[in-house]
């Protein structure tokens, strides 16, 4: 993982929330919220909360007695999340998933949406999730499947890569879509001490009003922006424009609809 893969700062949080959340994150947030509701937890920890799309989905489904602690390593993302949800049941806190500042057996459930791919030491992060869970507590998270199964991300990666053929920006393929080996995920969770591990693929549709929206989402709402600007600051808008054109060629110039696919994982302490 490159150092820039974890930098969600500047205008990235705003573009992330405006474009990426409805494009790819909202349907999976609703899915995690439903799954979590079925287990009836009272105390929930969310790691890698980002701009709070899962936090909002959880808060909408859990009872008034529930308490949610939403954490993220990136303070700019968490600051944006705070502006989107004012709920006395939710406590926001900057925290590293690999070194959680909470006591043992503090939570009934730990949930993480599309964050595990960013953990430098995944087994360590999974051990931390297990440590803060009560006996029988559930760890629920999802990761993106391979980039070929996520059509807009694949098109953008190929398009931006062609702009810099000697050093293609591969953030999307390397990190968000780089942790889809279910056997490896199971092995890491087992090494962390979890049991009853289950994983399933889930397809959804990624929809936008125009080809430009997914282009902006990926080029300007993720750390792919950092990679583009590191190569040539003047070419960010060109990257967005070229990606818009490539998406339009494949999906049409009006509203667009592409496949997205994730893997949902559950494990029990």
Structural features, described:
The protein has helices spanning 12-39, 53-61, 75-84, 122-132, 151-163, 171-174, 182-191, 212-220, 224-231, 236-251, and strands at residues 43-47, 67-72, 90-94, 107-113, 133-144, 195-208, 256-268. The protein has one domain (3-268): 3-Layer(aba) Sandwich (Rossmann fold), CATH 3.40.50.150. With 269 residues, the chain is α/β, with parallel strands linked by helices. The mean pLDDT is 94.
Top keywords for this entry?
single chain; 269 residues; alpha/beta; Rossmann fold; seven-stranded mixed β-sheet; 10 helices
Please, what is the oligomeric state?
A: single chain
The profile of the biggest β sheet is: 7 strands, mixed
- How many distinct folded domains? 1
* Contiguous runs where pLDDT drops below 50 for at least 5 residues: none
Strand fraction band? 15-25%
Strand ordering within the main sheet:
3-2-1-4-5-7-6
Shape: globular
Report the CATH topology name: Rossmann fold
The CATH architecture can be named as: 3-Layer(aba) Sandwich
Q: Please report the number of helical segments.
A: 10
Helix content: 40-55%
Under CATH at level 1, the class stands as Alpha Beta
The N- and C-terminal alpha carbons lie at a distance of 29 Å
Gyration radius over CA: 18 Å
Following the backbone from N to C, one meets helices and strands in this order, namely HEHEHEEHEHHHEHHHE
Q: List how many beta strands DSSP finds.
A: 7
Q: From the helix content, strand content and strand pairing, which structural class follows?
A: alpha/beta
Q: Identify the CATH homologous superfamily.
A: Vaccinia Virus protein VP39
What's the overall average pLDDT, rounded?
Answer: 94
């Amino acid at each position: 993982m490159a150092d820039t893969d974890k930098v969600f700062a500047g205008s990235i949080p705003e573009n992330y929330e405006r474009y990426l959340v409805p494009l790819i994150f909202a349907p999976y947030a609703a899915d995690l919220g439903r799954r979590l509701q079925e287990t009836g937890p009272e105390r929930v920890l969310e790691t890698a909360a980002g701009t709070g799309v899962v936090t909002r989905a959880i808060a909408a489904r859990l009872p008034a007695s529930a308490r949610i602690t939403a954490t993220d390593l990136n303070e700019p993302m968490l600051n944006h999340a705070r502006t989107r949800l004012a709920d006395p049941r939710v406590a926001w806190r900057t925290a590293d998933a690999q070194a959680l500042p909470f006591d043992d057996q503090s939570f009934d459930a730990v949930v993480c949406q599309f964050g595990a791919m960013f953990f430098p030491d995944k087994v360590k992060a999974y051990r931390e999730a297990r440590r803060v869970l009560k006996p029988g507590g559930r760890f629920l998270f999802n990761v993106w499947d391979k980039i070929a199964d996520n059509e807009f991300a694949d098109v953008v990666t190929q398009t931006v890569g062609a702009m810099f053929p000697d050093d293609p920006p591969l953030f999307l393929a390397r990190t968000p879509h780089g942790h889809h080996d279910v056997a490896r995920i199971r092995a890491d969770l087992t090494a962390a001490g979890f049991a009853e591990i289950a994983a399933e693929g889930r397809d959804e549709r990624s929809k936008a009003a125009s080809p430009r929206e997914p282009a902006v989402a990926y080029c300007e709402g993720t750390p792919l922006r950092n990679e583009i600007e590191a190569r040539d600051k003047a070419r960010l808008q060109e990257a967005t424009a070229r990606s818009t054109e490539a998406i339009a060629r494949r999906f049409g110039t009006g509203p667009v609809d592409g496949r997205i696919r994730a893997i949902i994982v559950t494990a029990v302490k």
